[in-house]
Design brief:
Layout lengths: L5 E5 L4 E6 L7 E6 L4 H5 L10 H10 L7 H12 L3 E11 L5 E11 L4 E6 L8 E9 L6 E4 L1 H23 L1
Antiparallel strand pairs: 1-2, 2-3, 4-5, 6-7, 7-8
Length: about 170
């Protein structure tokens, strides 16, 4: 019966589970989970996984259909394969005259790689393609790189909340 049922919503795991008739040992359970689209996962966006610039160039070359234009992908592939980077190291001493002395060490990377580009792929399975901005981040120590997209993260949070809220409303009805 519906009165002996409950729903478990886990927004972090992007899942909903409906348990029908709690008093029955053989209760029915219906669940749903939101999964990232394979194209989004393939690009390792916001994963924190760093790979060499050459490997990144190959990844982009083989997935140029994910780009807003093939020309954007070609420019990025060329820049990554011919990476010319300048690593600046700044050491700054800070002293507030109270006995606190800090040494601040900063490394910045200047490169010929475009600062930002757009991808056009679905973030979640079963959802429409989304256009979002992506940046290439470099580790100064070894010039490995990763793809970062605050925009994709914002879209993912918004879409997750919307889809879960729609399902909760449908279940209530």
């Amino acid at each position: 019966s519906i009165h002996n049922s409950h729903i478990i919503v886990d927004r972090e795991k992007m899942s909903i589970a409906l348990f029908i008739d709690d008093s029955d040992h053989y209760q029915d359970a219906i669940g749903g989970k939101l999964n990232y689209h394979p194209a989004f996962l393939k690009m390792n966006i916001n994963s924190g996984k760093y790979i060499s610039a050459f490997d990144m160039a190959e990844l982009i070359k083989m997935n140029r259909s994910f780009f807003e234009t093939h020309a954007d992908a070609a420019v990025l592939v060329s820049a990554l394969k011919n990476l010319k980077a300048k690593v600046n190291q700044n050491i700054e001493k800070a002293d507030n005259n109270r006995g606190d002395r800090n040494q601040i060490f900063q490394q910045t990377v200047e490169s010929n790689v475009p600062a930002k580009f757009n991808l056009l792929i679905p973030i979640f399975k079963g959802q429409a393609k989304q256009l979002f901005e992506v940046e290439v981040y470099f580790k100064p120590e070894d010039m490995s790189c990763t793809l970062v997209s605050p925009s994709a993260n914002d879209i993912a949070v918004s879409v997750t909340d919307t889809i879960i809220d729609e399902q909760i409303t449908a279940i209530k009805e």
